[in-house]
Design brief:
3 domains; Non-ribosomal Peptide Synthetase Peptidyl Carrier Protein, Chain A; alpha+beta
C-alpha cells in the first residue's frame, strides 16, 4: 500500500494541526476506542479539557451477554454516540452502516473537517488488531490534497496482545482508503458543534450516588464476579474479565480526571485518584490471570472478591461524595483555597503542584500565557460557583498563587454577603 503513517509524540514538533494538538493535551490512556476520537473532536472544537465531561458518570450497569454469554459493562457503540455528543458539546449523528468504501468516503466534508467513523479494527492496518481480532473501533477520516488522499487520525492508546496501539495519523490514496472499508460494516457519524449540555458537579454527584445506593442495596457486584469465577471455560472467562476490568479501569481513571478538573485539590479528587489506581492494579492482576490460564495454570483466586470489593467501594464513595459536596460552594478556608489554586494552575499548565506552589511568579513557568490565565480563571469560577469582577482581573493578581487565592476569597465572601 502507498500509505504513510507516524505515531504522534506529545513532545515532538509538527505543523500545527487542531486534531493533533488536541491529542497532545489528552490522557488517551483514560479513554476507550469509541470515546477517544470523540474526545479529540471536543477538545479541538471547545478547547483543552472539554473531553473530561465524559468522566462525570460513575456507574456500573452490566448487561447479560446474548445466548448465555458472560455479562459485560460494554455498551454497543451505536448506542453510545449521541449521549457522548451531548456531554462533549457535539451533535453526533449516526447514519446507516455502509459496506462500500467509496460510498463511505463520499461523505467526507469537502473542507477537510473530519468524519467520525466506527468500523472494524480487523480492517485497520495502523492497529495491532489488524488481521487478528474483530471489534468496533472509531477513527477520524478527512479528505486532503483536494480529495486525492484520505487521512485517518486515531488517538487510541493501549497495550494489546498483538503489540502497542498509539496515537497516529495515516495517509492513504483515496482508492486504498476506500478498500479498507469494503465488505465490512462501517457507521459514519457526521459532526457539528453545539453548546455542551453536561450537568453541574452537584447534579452529577447526586446521580452517581443514586446509582451507588441501588448497587449497595443488592448483590450485583458479587453476582457479576461469580459469573466469571464459576464459568466452565476459564480461558474464556479470564479473557472476558480482562476486557471488563480494562473498561472499568479506564472509566474510573476518566472519572478521576473529571473530579480533579472540577474540584482540584479536594479530598474527593484524591479519593477518586486512589480508586482509579486500585482499578489499574486489578486490571494488571487480571492480565496475569489470563496468561496463567492460557498456560494451564489456575487463576489467582483473589481477583474475583477484589472485583466485587472495588465495585462496592465505588458505590460507597459515590454516596459519600454527594453528601460531602452539596454543590453550594467549595470550602473557603484559605489553606484549602490555596491548595485548589495550586492544583488548578498545575492542571492547566501540565506542571507539578509542588513546582507551582514554590513559584512566586507564575509567568516564569513553562507554558504560561494569556490563554492559560483565562483557563485558570474560568476553572476557579466554575469550582467556586462565582464570577470574578472584571476590575479584579489584574495581570499582577493572576500571575501569583497568593493573588489568585486572595481573588477567590474576596469574591466568595462577597457572594455570601450578597445572598445573606
Amino acid at each position: 500500500m502507498n500509505a504513510s503513517a507516524g505515531p504522534l509524540s506529545k513532545a515532538s514538533d509538527t505543523v500545527a494541526d487542531p486534531l493533533v494538538e488536541a491529542i497532545r493535551g489528552i490522557d488517551t490512556t483514560a479513554l476507550d476506542c469509541i470515546q477517544v476520537n470523540a474526545a479529540v473532536l471536543a477538545d479541538a472544537r471547545h478547547g483543552p479539557g472539554s473531553h473530561v465531561e465524559l468522566g462525570g458518570q460513575l456507574d456500573f450497569v452490566p448487561r447479560a451477554g446474548p445466548h448465555g454469554l458472560l455479562p459485560t459493562v460494554e455498551e454497543p457503540a451505536a448506542d453510545r454516540i449521541e449521549p457522548m455528543g451531548d456531554l462533549l458539546g457535539l451533535v453526533l449523528e449516526g447514519g446507516r452502516p455502509m459496506m462500500d468504501g467509496r460510498a463511505l468516503l463520499g461523505l467526507l466534508p469537502d473542507d477537510g473537517s473530519p468524519l467520525y467513523v466506527v468500523g472494524d479494527a480487523f480492517r485497520m492496518p495502523w492497529l495491532p488488531y489488524h488481521d487478528h481480532q474483530h471489534m468496533d473501533h472509531s477513527v477520524l477520516l478527512r479528505a486532503v490534497d483536494g480529495g486525492a488522499r484520505v487521512e485517518a487520525v486515531d488517538a487510541y492508546d493501549n497495550e494489546t496482545p498483538y503489540g502497542r496501539a498509539e496515537p497516529v495519523v495515516c495517509s492513504y490514496d483515496f482508492g486504498e482508503a476506500a478498500a479498507l472499508f469494503d465488505g465490512s460494516p462501517a457507521l459514519p457519524v457526521t459532526v457539528r458543534a453545539a453548546p455542551p449540555a453536561h450537568p453541574s458537579v452537584a447534579e452529577a454527584l447526586a446521580r452517581n450516588a443514586e446509582g451507588g445506593r441501588r448497587l449497595l442495596a443488592g448483590d450485583a457486584p458479587e453476582r457479576y464476579a461469580a459469573a466469571f469465577r464459576d464459568h466452565p471455560d476459564q480461558q474464556e472467562a479470564c479473557a472476558a474479565l480482562l476486557l471488563e476490568t480494562w473498561l472499568l479501569s479506564r472509566s474510573r481513571r476518566l472519572h478521576a480526571a473529571w473530579v480533579a478538573h472540577h474540584l482540584p485539590g479536594s479530598p474527593l479528587a484524591s479519593a477518586a485518584a486512589g480508586r482509579a489506581a486500585a482499578w489499574d492494579t486489578l486490571a494488571g492482576q487480571c492480565y496475569l490471570a489470563a496468561r496463567r490460564v492460557q498456560r494451564g495454570r489456575p487463576a489467582p483466586p483473589q481477583i474475583h472478591p477484589a472485583l466485587a470489593e472495588l465495585l462496592r467501594a465505588d458505590a460507597e464513595s459515590a454516596v459519600r461524595a454527594a453528601t460531602e459536596y452539596s454543590g453550594e460552594a467549595m470550602p473557603h478556608v484559605p489553606a484549602q483555597v490555596r491548595q485548589t489554586v495550586v492544583h488548578t494552575v498545575a492542571d492547566v499548565l501540565g506542571a507539578v503542584p509542588e513546582t507551582v506552589a514554590a513559584t512566586d511568579d507564575l509567568s516564569r513557568l513553562e507554558g504560561f500565557a494569556s490563554f492559560q490565565m483565562v483557563e485558570t480563571v474560568e476553572r476557579l469560577e466554575d469550582a467556586y460557583g462565582v464570577e470574578f469582577a472584571a476590575e479584579d482581573l489584574d495581570a499582577a493578581v493572576l500571575r501569583t498563587v497568593e493573588g489568585l487565592v486572595g481573588l477567590v476569597l474576596r469574591t466568595t465572601v462577597g457572594a455570601e454577603v450578597a445572598h445573606a
